[in-house]
């Protein structure tokens, strides 16, 4: 009852290029967005400047939600939620997993979750999202397509998954060690080739490619996939800080 | 929805500030209620005291009335006593006067003195002594005198005198 008397604040934090982008979305009592603020900080953890900035918003209401995108590696998706089957793919003592719609699970090392929590201990965290979760939500209306490849492209990493009519066939996450664009594209190509060659994957030819891109290399990406793999890439620009706030709302049952 | 690796922290509308507000509000309500009870208690106490005072007033009034009655009776008694005293004094004086009235030669054997009556019995050596020394003074005191003289063998007279004053 009292909850409806308060405004809400959603804060999305995305770390990129040794910076932190903080996105603040202010909602009124009727859940309408009243203001949006975006600010970059030259820190990977919560320093004083970042703390003062965030405190200004979270002190306004008890209903604030802080989300962060986890780009640590290794992480990925597995096409099951059953513990027995999961334990065949990952060590459940080492990896933390979250089951989504009883179809597949996102996983990440427990240690990386602890590191993230510790990095944000001053402000605390409400949600930690995998780039795969962002990708699945962003392309949710295309998951049931036949043999479709999804890529979430960031400056320093990519997340990739292949679905066939809603069935997860393959996932891969890679953090780039080199800032060279050719290296980045080659890494993706190698991952796709790995999918085709490896017999454990139910390989088929990829019909379509969707890329959620946070970089400014749309044209280069499109040309590369066409030239190297004869795939016509559908490229969408994505703002990860906005998307993780959208996911936070979805987690709160569509606030 | 199963997107996040962790669950959101519990959010409560009852922030420390709101809790403090409720505590203050509760304290004020409690204080007001306490004051209300205190005033009810005091009111009841004052009503009881007022009733006690009324009862005491009635009791004191009754006591005053009783005392007045007693004072009245005591005054009546005092008046009565004074009257008795006066009467006794008068009687004493009368008796003294009467006995001073009798000459030494006359022997009294019986005297009855009441408010308006003096009855004398005695002996006198002769009638003249009785008439001059006793009858005349008695006559001046009492309006009615009845005297009988009876001669004795030795020459004396035995007398009986009833003297009365007229009642008004």
Identify the notable features of this structure and list them briefly.
heterodimer; A: alpha/beta; B: 168 residues; alpha+beta; Gyrase A, domain 2; four-stranded antiparallel sheet
Explain this structure to me?
The complex is a heterodimer of chains A (255) and B (168). By secondary structure, chain A is an alpha/beta fold. Chain A contains 7 helices and 13 strands. In chain A, helix 4 packs across helix 7. Chain B starts with 15 loop residues before the first helix and ends with a strand. Chain B is of the alpha+beta class. Chain B is 60% helix and 18% strand. The longest helix of chain B has 86 residues. In chain B, strands 1-2-4-3 form a 4-stranded antiparallel beta sheet, covered by helices on one side.
Number of helices of chain B: 2
Physical arrangement of strands within the biggest beta sheet of chain B:
1-2-4-3
The proportion of residues in beta strands of chain A is: 25-35%
Helix amount of chain B:
55-70%
- The best one-word shape of chain A is globular
Give the chain pair forming the largest contact, with residue counts.
A-B, 34 and 14 residues
Give a brief description.
With 255 residues, chain A is an alpha/beta fold. Chain A has helices at residues 48-58, 83-89, 110-119, 131-138, 181-197, 218-229, 240-251, and strands at 8-16, 19-27, 33-41, 64-69, 75-78, 95-100, 104-109, 127-129, 148-153, 157-164, 167-175, 208-213, 233-237. In chain A, helix 4 (131-138) packs across helix 7.
How does the SSE layout of this entry go?
The complex is a heterodimer of chains A (255) and B (168).
Chain A: E1 8-16, E2 19-27, E3 33-41, H1 48-58, E4 64-69, E5 75-78, H2 83-89, E6 95-100, E7 104-109, H3 110-119, E8 127-129, H4 131-138, E9 148-153, E10 157-164, E11 167-175, H5 181-197, E12 208-213, H6 218-229, E13 233-237, H7 240-251
Parallel strand pairs in A: 1-4, 4-8, 9-12, 12-13
Antiparallel strand pairs in A: 1-2, 2-3, 5-7, 6-7, 9-10, 10-11
Chain B: H1 16-101, E1 107-113, E2 117-124, H2 127-141, E3 144-151, E4 157-164
Antiparallel strand pairs in B: 1-2, 2-4, 3-4
